Amino acid sequence: MARGTSDSGMQPIAHALSIFVPVYGVWQAYRHFALLDALRRKVDPAHGVDALTGAIGTGIWWLTFTHYSTEPIFQALDAIELAVGTAVILYGQHALNAYWRSRPGTPVEERMNEVDWIALGVAASFALLTLVGALMGPAS
Q1: What is residue 47's DSSP assignment?
Q2: Residue 55 domain-assigned?
Q3: Integer Cα distance of 13 and 3 in angstroms
Q4: Could you list the residue range(s) of the whole structural domain that residue 59 is in?
Q5: Is residue 99 assigned to a domain?
Q6: Is residue 119 part of a domain?
Q7: DSSP letter (8 states) at residue 8
Q8: Which of 15, 37, 78, 132 is the most exposed place for a label (fewest CB within 10 A)?
Q9: How would residue 36 be classed by pLDDT, with cut points 50, 70 and 90?
Q10: Could you give the number of structural domains in the chain?
């Protein structure tokens, strides 16, 4: 998004890590989705994203992410966390991809950098370990 706004002061890593700060992370998510909405509506005024929806989804993800237990209710909450987290990411990414495809100017090369691969690996490892832990946990 730094390229789309020509804002060289954007700090993607710091922005991503802010999600773990209570309340502030939800505010950052709101600001992030508001910026996505503004960018998207510049090239397609009829389509955008709702910043509040992104912030609420992030809040639900954060609440369930920080409360882990092997109790069945928390296992269900973990499943909700995974679904909501995935939905929020897809919601925002869909808008961002549409912006990059619709904007005027030279085409932007799609890419995955090292940080993207590390984040994907950490997320996949966490999901796999959570699934293995749930399946191999003691039966009640």
Answers
A1: -
A2: yes
A3: 15
A4: 2-112
A5: yes
A6: no
A7: T
A8: 132
A9: confident
A10: 1
